[in-house]
């Protein structure tokens, strides 16, 4: 009989999938801001993007809009990468995985965002 247990992708594939998510969403925010579909002020209510926009607007109130957009998107990417790195480090340590097969059979992803971002 074939087991119906769920397996997960290897760690590298988990990282690649989430890196794609970061790139995709960050690019959409960048495109939307540059196309004028929404403004930095319009992002202020969004949890992650709002924090980034608020920081940029407070630190650099007089820089040109293109630079504000660039700095906001950079902060969003940095926060997501930092969260992904820290949460994954914790999950790997807590899981005790030691091999690629351990990662696949662990029962849940070991590479992930923390709950607020996941």
How would you describe this protein?
The chain has 118 residues and is mainly α. It has one domain. It is built from 4 helices and no strands. Helix 1 packs antiparallel against helix 3 and helix 2 (47-59) packs across helix 3. The model has no long low-confidence stretch (mean pLDDT 94).
Short account of what is shown:
The chain is an all-alpha fold and 118 residues long.
Task: Outline the fold blueprint.
Layout: H1 11-34, H2 47-59, H3 65-95, H4 100-104
Helix pairs in contact: 1-3, 2-3
Cα Rg: 18 Å
Major sheet details: none
Please count the beta strands (DSSP E, at least 2 residues each). Answer: 0
Mean residue pLDDT: 94
Q: Secondary-structure element order, as H and E?
A: HHHH
Distance between the termini: 35 Å
Structural class: mainly alpha
Helical coverage, percent range: 55-70%
Give the CA-based shape.
elongated
Number of domains: 1
Number of helices: 4
Beta percentage is: under 5%
- Taking pLDDT < 50 over at least 5 consecutive residues as the criterion, the unreliable ranges are none
């Amino acid at each position: 009989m074939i087991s119906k247990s769920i397996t997960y992708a290897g760690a590298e594939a988990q990282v690649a999938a989430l890196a794609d998510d970061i790139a995709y969403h960050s690019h959409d925010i960048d495109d939307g801001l540059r196309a004028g579909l929404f403004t930095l002020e319009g992002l202020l209510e969004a949890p992650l993007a709002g924090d980034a926009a608020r920081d940029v607007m407070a630190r650099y109130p007089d820089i040109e809009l293109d630079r504000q957009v660039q700095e906001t998107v950079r902060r969003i990417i940095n926060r997501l990468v930092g969260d992904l790195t820290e949460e994954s480090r914790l999950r790997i340590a807590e899981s005790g995985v030691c091999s690629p097969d351990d990662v696949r059979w662990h029962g849940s992803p070991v590479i992930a965002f923390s709950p607020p971002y996941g």
